[in-house]
Structure prediction request, 174 residues.
Amino acid sequence: MSGEPGAYPGPRSFAVRPIPENAPRIISADEAWAAPAPWAQSALALDFRHQHDDDDFGPQPTGTSALPDPHPLVSQLAQAVMEVVSGQRPPAQLIRHLAPTVYSVLARRALVAARRQQPGARRAAVVRRVRLCQPTDGVVEACAVVVAHGRVRAMAMRLEGIDGRWVVTAVTIG
Prediction:
């Protein structure tokens, strides 16, 4: 049987070999901060002994002059937010434009709307009017009048310039 093609060749002998030691040597904290370290390259000069300002990392505020006109964005976001709240649009479509706290509130409202949604065609929300004011550089406060499902509703939004784009940091729907 062992001569047939595809047949099991039978037991093989295995050799057990020890695993070579390849873990790096454990060094003390004093040795790690000693200068110059033999394992560090001299091309990258980072000093981790000093505290760095957290202002250099994380979201950076952006001035109004470096941002696009907020009026069309507010109109589109007002309609999209109303569609999310009514369960017609998934909230994940707006995640790029919403602060995390605002996103979590709208996502929760979308879940509630999905539970109570009745079958049948619903008309999309229509934004009737948008008003903007700029209390400070890089901040826009907007209000919108939106007609959704036969009701006229008011919406207030605060947009802040963060990382070169407008981000909604607060929403109130009346």
User: Anything to note?
Assistant: The radius of gyration is 30 Å. The mean pLDDT is 82. The helical segments are 29-33, 70-85, 100-116. The longest strand covers residues 151-162.
